Fold each of these.
Amino acid sequence: MGLHVDIRKKLRSYNLNVSFETNGEYLAFLGASGSGKSMTLKCIAGVETPDEGRIVLNGKVLFDSQLKINLKPQERNIGYFFQNYALFPHMTVEENIGIGLACSKLEKSERVQKILKNFHLEGQGKKYPNQLSGGEQQRIALARCMIYQPDVLMLDEPFSALDMHLKEKLQNEVLEILKDYNGEVLMVTHSRDEAYKFCKNLVILNKCKSVLFGNTKDIFHKPKLLIAARLTGCKNISKYELLERNRIRAVDWGLELEVGNAVPIDTTHIGIRAHNFILDDDKKKMNSFRFKIIKIYEDMFEYNVHLVKDGDEKYSEIIFKVKKKEWDLRPEGNYIYLKIPEEEILYIS
Amino acid sequence: MDLSPIIISIKTAAVAIVLTFMLGLFVARLVVNMKSEKAKMVVDGFMTLPLVLPPTVVGFLLLMTFGVNRPFGRFLLEVLGVRIVFSWTATVIAAVVISFPLMYRSARGAFEQVDKQLIMAGRTLGMSEGKIFWKITMPLALPGVLAGGVLSFARGLGEFGATAMIAGNIANKTRTLPLAIYSEVAAGNMDIALYYVIIILVISFLVVVLMNYFSLKDRKYLR
């Protein structure tokens, strides 16, 4: 059971090459724009055709280039939630939701009314999509997918068309609505927060290739690959050199670090997330360094501090994110001491 | 004054627009769904040709096809007993062929402007291709399609060159308004010609207004 995908397709910019497997767990596709995330979903839905490979859903072969099987999208029973919702503008909400149902008028009307109620859309059935708010449109699009009880629900950037302040509210609403859904959920996103929040498993796409597949939390905590580190939001990445058994050098930052454990043999870079530095008072402790403050950018709750080791300009800047309260307690001056905790160092290959 | 050109013209334009409308939609859908870009270009070229050729050339080609000494014309005459050339049917054929590209191109443009994602959405929702066409593509393309229809009607009404070539200029039979105007002027009857001209002017103006109405009409779901 589950969804098994292994496909290749020639595209204008890159060649799509994606493989992964899911089994009832929410799966996120994380990648930059144009990394083939949406194309992958479209191939699974059947609205685009891969050149070769195989797609199997719950034991049913949807696509197999060798056996020359290619089911029509209509036969795949896959719900596809489009980025801009793709609601039919000339149909009312009720018509939009019920358009593909093959049953009697009475039954259709009952089912549509029921799902409208479940999705908190009572009384909106006779309106047209453009008379509704962004959040309501999103729920209609979701209701339209869910009424068919699809085996797989695919969400293509479900929250990207929403205002910031609506986003969080709707993310929780959608999670709530999907709680009772038993099928597979695939979600395309370029937001690491969404991936982390929604999905237990994660596929990372780079230049149309699936380069990493695994548990979301594991990948966020230990990204392993450079692209994964970047996509999971690691701001500080430096080339790496092994000096001695327990000493490594972060070449770009000009720092020498002491590490207790053995470093993985294929390491090429190390990374440290911007939140993971610790403000320190002097440099006597292990892995504490003196930095010059270059710039400070202010967010609502925290500062983004750009630093360079000892003010030496040949080294790259390090970004340090710190809570305002914490930062305001530091001693005055253009220099600060930061400690790099050994357990927060990411080894990247 | 002879009313027959008015009646013949309206009859011809009415029958022609029904044929052109259906044929144009059909071919436009066919071309839009074609996978190969090259084939699309070639087919589109053929379908658009009557728009850019001089109508006399189109008339000449029609004569070559339907003339009783030509294979197809002879087949129609001998097997089905139908003689196309210099009949009223010929005025319809000329009007259809000349006005077809306008209908086809308008419809094609209108179909292509429909958001592809909506079509994809229809497919993932289990709608058949036919249902998608009638429930999604057509309603959304309707303003463009209707505008094309009106334009083709006007073009069919004004057809002169190809009609003269294949249908001739037979009073009470194939003499449409444009041909009647030409004949009356040639005979020096400027008053009667003016009378026909005014009729054409009025109809054509109404048609253009109607077309604007269709393309600008506020639709309830856009409000």
Amino acid sequence: MLPTGSGKSLCYQLPSYILHAQVLIVSPLLSLMQDQVEQIKIRGEKKVIALNSFLSFKEKKQALKNLQHYKFIFISPEMLNLAEISEALSSCSIRLFVVDEAHCISQWGPDFRPDYLQLGAIKEKLGSPVTLALTATATVKIRADICQSLKMASPDEWVYSVNRPNIALKVEQLSSFQEKIHTLKQFIETLSSPGIVYFSSKKLADELAEEMNQTTAKKISSYHAGLEQDQRILIQQQFLTDQLDWIFATSAFGMGVNKENIRTIIHFHLPSSMEAFVQEIGRAGRDGEKSLSILLYLSKDEQITTNLLELERPSLRQISEFEKIKHTASGLKEIEEKTGLSEVQNRVLHYYAKIETNHSNWAGHVNQLILKRMVEKKRKIDQMVTYVTTDNCRRQLIVRCFDETNSIIQPFCCDQCGFPLESYIGSLGSEQRKVITWQNRLASIFKENENDGWTKDY
Amino acid sequence: MTYLDAILLLCFRLFNGDRSRSAIFHLISGKKTSQTIQDAHLYGAHDFFQIYPHLSRKSFDQSCERLIMNKYLIEFQEQRWRVSEDGENALDAYFKNHPFPFYLKGWLYHDRATIFWKRLLLLSQSLSNYIHQENRFFPVQRDPDIQHWVKHTFLNWKDDRRKNTKKLYLELTKIFMKNKFPDHPDYIVQQMTGFQLIGQTPRQLADHFKTDESEVHIRFLNTLHYILTEIQDKNTYPILNSIQKDITQKEFVLTVSTEKTLRYIQQFYTIEKIAQIRNLKTSTIEDHIIEIALMVQTFSIEPYVELSLQDEIWLAANSIRNKRMKEIKDLVPRASFFQIRLVLVSKGRTDNKWKIPYLNTLDSGLSERVKKKSSKV
């Protein structure tokens, strides 16, 4: 278990070259997978492929035919189920089996992915290669789950502290929504950027980004899964090249974004778990420089997060409907349309349909199981409420959540221990950027005009 | 009114209540069904085909609701809408302050424009990094076909890379500087990516120009289609032309069955003979011929309606309102209904009808004023 940005991918890339071994990497998020592939390609390695639903039929066929020639094979967990894939994989000699974001395996984790549960069986089918499970956040309980699911008997565990000493922690309690927006605006204008503001609503991220981009001197754009891929790539690249000061994002942004100099992470809404929170603030300060996390909290904010969770839960009626049509429906899409289930809900129910058999009242039983998970998730939210309302050191509270017992005393710790916010004020003026004329831009792209000065402005 | 609202009014005006709202949604989002494609041609709306490929049904409905609420559309029959007097006025007022998209050729260019644009973006980014001596960068296009084409071109150019980069720059500059260039080059250039200079998204451009994304998109598309038309001159624009010369596009799309009928027609079979061979009713074959006459501009209907009869029917059709077939038949009793339909679809194609009311603004300098107004950077 390593914090984000500390070089987890090196742990399988280096051995692959030393051992001349073919590596299979299971990765849960499509966008993350694309980013990982791009990052390997950019250092000159071409023998890398991502097997996911983005591939066209033709590309997939081509890739599967040549699978043994790839050094790094990234795959999404649901793809591993397909017969043609496991057939193609059996023609390879996978010597290193990597499970990225391994906490998705745990039913108790916030990002539970049912497909991850079969990874143990798949590993055995591949001849039990050396297995590496990677995660940035996992409690002792989740780590035990990972070992059990992946059938790792006595693994070597490398656990690093979740504590990131260079990130100061602050919670800002507010009394109204208006005040929250006002405070956010002040922070945007004064605190060091580049930075990310996390929202749980796409719409709010869009609206506030547009508003503050117009009314402040900062360059701000929103980023979420609702944007088209072309736009997502541009915004991500603008952020990486420091053409943007702030990104207003949903949790879709961040994984796989390797940017060292992110200075500030602000949460506009309460994250759904301590795991998610630690992952998100962990994107700050990878260069080791002083960075800041601020969580904006309005009393009863946890209600929003809980409501979102409730929306995620399929109703008993939907579960029964699913049970009725699952055998006759032609595909996942049809089930989703007829029952109104989301893609994730559908996947969860399919999982339960597979493992929870022999119940006279299947729907009722599964509903109970899902309710039990809800209770667990609400407990996670309560943990975040405790983080917000505690009178003690927030850093201490975070490490306790991950079962670490070391006591930490450090400067620039948290607002409970006290630190001067002034030392996180960003420089003004240098952030100002003008948009260059099309003539200059075109010349700059094609290096046609050596006129000094304006290229640096941008 | 947003630009999308204005475009929708133009479409409602063309369909004149003959088709449902959904038909317009399918047209501009670019649904490739024979119904949509035939409608597009019959009503002279094919230039709007797929001009908003990413439009969600929700945004479309919101836009319609806005038009209805402002009484720009009136429901004269259930679910049938026409542009009202207020709507006409609002539309005229709107295009006095916003450039009219004269160069849109949705049906002709929809595929070609997308591929050309993606290739141009990635090729420029690659060349830019190359001449800045950077050989590592994150491509702004991930589509493997686009990447493959750019890689191939880049390798092909070998020793000519510098020379061709310069040429590409000069060709782009030349086209942007043309007097006739329809809008501000920002809509193209600010979206382009170079070495350490990442392109702006349409939303960011909308923010910058203080307008809505639907306007940015159409102004971009209008200039892109203009560019595609211009660069067909491969002597003046050899590099730009080469970016799209291999993109083939079907000129027309026929249903499978109609396609079969067409092949028999090309071998001079009669309607009755084709019906017999294909074991179909003659009326079905006639429907196919109507579809062909509509979609294939070069298709001659003379074998089915002699010229003098064509004129007679057309004259009769224009003498009565609504072009109702029964009334035409009364005036020209010797024509069959099939012949009347055939003349109506082949002569009745009203290409360019949508832009005729605005042609006077094209060269009056107004578009120039609109250009200037929005180009304060």
Amino acid sequence: MDDHSPALVADDLSLSYGSVRALDGLTLTAERGAVTALLGSNGAGKTTAISCATGLLHPDGGTVRVLGADPWRSSPEHRARVGVMIQDGGLASGAGAMQLLRYGASLHAAPLDVEEVAEHLGIDDFARTLVRRLSGGQRQRLALALAIIGRPDLVFLDEPTAGMDPSIRRRVRELIRGLARTGTAVVLTTHLMDDVVGLADAVQVISRGRVLASGSVQDVINAHRAADGALVVRATASGIDPLVAPALEADLRAAAARHGAELEISSGGAADLESVLLDLMDEESR
Amino acid sequence: MTTLPTSPAAAGPGRSPRPAPALRRILSHAGLEARVLLSNGEQLTVAVALPAMVLIGLWLLPLGRLEGVAAIDTAVAATFATALISTSFTSQAILTGFDRRNGVLRWVATTPLGRGGYLAGKILATLTTHVLQVIVLGLIALIIGWRPELPGLLGLLPVWLVGTVAFGALGMLVAGTLRTEAVLAVSNLVFVLMIAAGGVAFPVAAYPRILGGLVDLLPSGALGELMRACLASGPFSVGSVVVLLLWAVGGVLAVMRWFRWTDS
């Protein structure tokens, strides 16, 4: 497998829990050196898709290749190349934070510097605290550190910034961008639109176990807005003084009214993507 | 803020992601398991304090003795059986049950350690803890008059290994099939019943005939009798060997069949 092929290729995956169809022909790819976000509501199939890609679940149908290999039959060599941050942490509750990070590093031949990672993610602030006494955000940071400690070629992050305070969230986003910049493929799931807009090179909108839309954030928005055939004129204004914003909004509405056009004003990319997600899910449920 | 050299490309040649050698991974996991177990107050109570109480209790009180055998010898046999069950069964059931609930079993399956390495590390951690238990409890016993004989200690080794497999498998079965709250209750209750009424603290001969026949078939009864045969000149029964072996094999097969790695 060459270094330019996608890090993750899932094709027509299906999986049911009893009568519930968790994956229903899900197809997606994730490129190297890029952040791919799986976006969808609770129960959409995001975590199930990641579980199939990490060899925790075997799909009923379809194929999944991770770094060219079948994750269900993965070797230690393969697993060393894939970092995983699972949703509920997967942290031994009786271990200390640094103790666990050192343990995670010891499973790899050439791990990152443990102290450096701990400092970077602020884990040294709670180094000796037992996992069961950590806050949700602290656990998230530790789980993220464990996922990247082996310098993975591909890393799966299930809700990586959930429960984090804003400053740490920003630092984690920078870390994730850094991972992608240096060639790692990052696949993350999230509910947070800010995460997608600020981080993702590609987004896969998932609902009921299927991908409803995929591409860059702007591609997904554009494709959805233009789906009814109407011409969409898109403009972005930045650096607007909050005091001036109401007046600008009133001027824009007046201009739109003069031309008989409907105007929708949003305060950022995040809100746009959120409305697209909700629209897509509405259409899907009809 | 500094940028971490997170990827192989950023780290330079020779820093590609690869696993540590298998033995190092297993030893590392065994070390973590043993440290977690021994740093947990409740687990330490079950692993050392309770067996020590059994030792002192059976040494002082006229209970669980064999005719013509020193009280300290029957007390040590019961104590070592208690120690083995406490770590192999109760502690491992509780620790593994919580690991399962917390998603640890799912996470380790995605790491270079894998499920096989996790189990190997767990077995090694259990045996390491047993060594520490024997040292601490053996020292207490020596202080109060125990004088072990080499043949008995050598005979103890295979009994200990088979017992560890049997009770470890039963502990894993409890951890891998029940909800965490039930794991806590069941493992503690079964532990107490096995010690008090399952042929550990008291020789099978001390039970009424019908009950004794039943206790003979329990893994705890078989282990207790074999410990007494090795350490207290008790009667050696091939039947006890067969019973303990059957529990070990059956336990492992049951774990392979019914153990669930996730809590869902």
